[in-house]
Amino acid sequence: MKQVLIVIMVAGALTACNSGASEAAANEAAKAKTIDSLSVVLAKQKAIDSMKVVAAEREKRSTHTVETVTMENTAAQPAQAAEKKGLSHTAKGAIVGAGTGAVTGAIINHNDRAKGAVIGTIIGAGVGAGTGLIVDKSKAKKKKKAAQQ
Protein backbone atom coordinates (compact mmCIF):
# COMPACT_ATOMS: atom_id res chain seq x y z
CA MET A 1 0.00 0.00 0.00
CA LYS A 2 2.85 2.34 0.80
CA GLN A 3 4.38 1.64 -2.61
CA VAL A 4 1.17 2.52 -4.43
CA LEU A 5 0.88 5.72 -2.44
CA ILE A 6 4.48 6.66 -3.24
CA VAL A 7 3.97 5.94 -6.95
CA ILE A 8 0.86 8.14 -7.01
CA MET A 9 2.68 10.97 -5.21
CA VAL A 10 5.67 10.80 -7.56
CA ALA A 11 3.36 10.74 -10.60
CA GLY A 12 1.46 13.74 -9.21
CA ALA A 13 4.68 15.67 -8.61
CA LEU A 14 5.95 14.95 -12.11
CA THR A 15 2.62 15.96 -13.61
CA ALA A 16 2.61 19.20 -11.65
CA CYS A 17 6.11 20.03 -12.87
CA ASN A 18 5.21 19.31 -16.48
CA SER A 19 2.00 21.34 -16.41
CA GLY A 20 3.91 24.37 -15.16
CA ALA A 21 6.26 24.11 -18.10
CA SER A 22 3.42 23.70 -20.56
CA GLU A 23 1.56 26.63 -18.97
CA ALA A 24 4.66 28.77 -19.35
CA ALA A 25 4.94 27.70 -22.99
CA ALA A 26 1.24 28.45 -23.51
CA ASN A 27 1.69 31.89 -21.91
CA GLU A 28 4.66 32.61 -24.17
CA ALA A 29 2.63 31.51 -27.21
CA ALA A 30 -0.26 33.75 -26.15
CA LYS A 31 2.14 36.68 -25.71
CA ALA A 32 3.62 36.01 -29.14
CA LYS A 33 0.13 35.95 -30.69
CA THR A 34 -0.74 39.20 -28.93
CA ILE A 35 2.44 40.84 -30.18
CA ASP A 36 1.77 39.54 -33.70
CA SER A 37 -1.80 40.83 -33.63
CA LEU A 38 -0.59 44.19 -32.34
CA SER A 39 1.93 44.29 -35.19
CA VAL A 40 -0.87 43.67 -37.67
CA VAL A 41 -3.02 46.39 -36.10
CA LEU A 42 -0.13 48.86 -36.18
CA ALA A 43 0.59 48.00 -39.82
CA LYS A 44 -3.07 48.55 -40.70
CA GLN A 45 -3.08 51.85 -38.83
CA LYS A 46 0.03 53.00 -40.74
CA ALA A 47 -1.64 52.06 -44.02
CA ILE A 48 -4.79 53.96 -43.06
CA ASP A 49 -2.76 57.01 -42.05
CA SER A 50 -0.85 57.00 -45.33
CA MET A 51 -4.13 56.67 -47.25
CA LYS A 52 -5.52 59.66 -45.35
CA VAL A 53 -2.46 61.71 -46.27
CA VAL A 54 -2.80 60.74 -49.94
CA ALA A 55 -6.53 61.52 -49.88
CA ALA A 56 -5.87 64.93 -48.31
CA GLU A 57 -3.30 65.73 -51.00
CA ARG A 58 -5.70 64.67 -53.73
CA GLU A 59 -8.45 66.77 -52.21
CA LYS A 60 -6.18 69.82 -52.18
CA ARG A 61 -5.29 69.24 -55.82
CA SER A 62 -8.86 68.56 -56.93
CA THR A 63 -10.21 71.57 -55.02
CA HIS A 64 -7.71 73.81 -56.73
CA THR A 65 -8.52 72.32 -60.13
CA VAL A 66 -12.26 72.59 -59.59
CA GLU A 67 -11.96 76.22 -58.57
CA THR A 68 -9.95 77.03 -61.68
CA VAL A 69 -12.36 75.24 -63.99
CA THR A 70 -15.34 76.82 -62.27
CA MET A 71 -13.96 80.31 -62.74
CA GLU A 72 -13.29 79.68 -66.42
CA ASN A 73 -16.72 78.15 -67.03
CA THR A 74 -18.53 80.92 -65.16
CA ALA A 75 -17.15 83.52 -67.53
CA ALA A 76 -17.98 81.48 -70.64
CA GLN A 77 -21.42 80.07 -69.81
CA PRO A 78 -24.35 81.05 -67.59
CA ALA A 79 -24.78 78.95 -64.46
CA GLN A 80 -27.38 76.19 -64.66
CA ALA A 81 -29.05 74.53 -61.71
CA ALA A 82 -27.99 70.89 -61.48
CA GLU A 83 -30.86 68.52 -60.75
CA LYS A 84 -30.32 65.47 -58.63
CA LYS A 85 -31.13 62.30 -60.47
CA GLY A 86 -32.25 59.29 -58.52
CA LEU A 87 -35.16 56.97 -57.98
CA SER A 88 -38.59 58.45 -58.45
CA HIS A 89 -41.12 58.30 -55.68
CA THR A 90 -42.96 55.65 -57.69
CA ALA A 91 -39.90 53.38 -57.71
CA LYS A 92 -39.15 54.03 -54.05
CA GLY A 93 -42.77 53.31 -53.13
CA ALA A 94 -42.73 50.05 -55.08
CA ILE A 95 -39.53 48.91 -53.34
CA VAL A 96 -40.73 49.78 -49.85
CA GLY A 97 -44.18 48.34 -50.54
CA ALA A 98 -42.73 45.09 -51.85
CA GLY A 99 -40.55 44.65 -48.76
CA THR A 100 -43.31 45.51 -46.35
CA GLY A 101 -45.80 43.32 -48.21
CA ALA A 102 -43.44 40.36 -48.19
CA VAL A 103 -42.92 40.55 -44.44
CA THR A 104 -46.59 41.11 -43.73
CA GLY A 105 -47.67 38.30 -46.07
CA ALA A 106 -45.24 35.86 -44.46
CA ILE A 107 -46.49 36.78 -40.99
CA ILE A 108 -50.18 36.53 -41.88
CA ASN A 109 -50.04 33.23 -43.80
CA HIS A 110 -48.90 30.72 -41.17
CA ASN A 111 -49.49 27.63 -43.32
CA ASP A 112 -47.36 28.60 -46.32
CA ARG A 113 -45.07 31.54 -45.55
CA ALA A 114 -43.44 31.62 -48.99
CA LYS A 115 -46.80 31.88 -50.74
CA GLY A 116 -47.86 34.62 -48.33
CA ALA A 117 -44.62 36.51 -48.95
CA VAL A 118 -45.04 36.35 -52.73
CA ILE A 119 -48.65 37.55 -52.60
CA GLY A 120 -47.73 40.27 -50.11
CA THR A 121 -44.85 41.40 -52.32
CA ILE A 122 -47.09 41.78 -55.35
CA ILE A 123 -49.81 43.65 -53.48
CA GLY A 124 -47.34 45.81 -51.56
CA ALA A 125 -45.41 46.78 -54.69
CA GLY A 126 -48.64 47.80 -56.41
CA VAL A 127 -49.84 49.89 -53.50
CA GLY A 128 -46.42 51.48 -52.99
CA ALA A 129 -46.04 52.32 -56.68
CA GLY A 130 -49.50 53.86 -56.74
CA THR A 131 -48.74 56.00 -53.70
CA GLY A 132 -45.39 57.06 -55.18
CA LEU A 133 -47.08 57.99 -58.46
CA ILE A 134 -49.47 60.29 -56.60
CA VAL A 135 -46.52 61.99 -54.89
CA ASP A 136 -44.65 62.35 -58.20
CA LYS A 137 -47.65 63.97 -59.87
CA SER A 138 -48.18 66.42 -57.02
CA LYS A 139 -44.49 67.44 -57.12
CA ALA A 140 -44.69 67.91 -60.89
CA LYS A 141 -47.68 70.22 -60.44
CA LYS A 142 -45.79 72.26 -57.85
CA LYS A 143 -42.78 72.59 -60.16
CA LYS A 144 -45.02 73.62 -63.04
CA LYS A 145 -46.69 76.30 -60.90
CA ALA A 146 -43.33 77.58 -59.69
CA ALA A 147 -42.02 77.74 -63.28
CA GLN A 148 -45.06 79.75 -64.43
CA GLN A 149 -44.59 82.38 -61.75
Any descriptors?
mainly alpha, 149 residues, 3 helices
Strand content: under 5%
Shape annotation: elongated
Supply the number of helical segments: 3
Order of helices and strands: HHH
Strands, count: 0
| Straight-line N-to-C gap | 112 Å
Largest sheet: none
Unreliable stretches (pLDDT < 50, length at least 5) are: 64-76
| Rg over C-alpha atoms, rounded to the nearest angstrom | 35 Å
Helix content: over 70%
| Structure classification | mainly alpha
Q: Would you give an account of this structure?
A:
With 149 residues, the protein is mostly helical. The protein is built from three helices and no strands. The chain has helices at residues 2-76, 89-108, 113-148. The longest helix is centred in the first third of the chain and has 75 residues, at 2-76.
Give me a quick take on this structure:
Helix 2 runs antiparallel to helix 3 (113-148). It contains three helices and no strands.
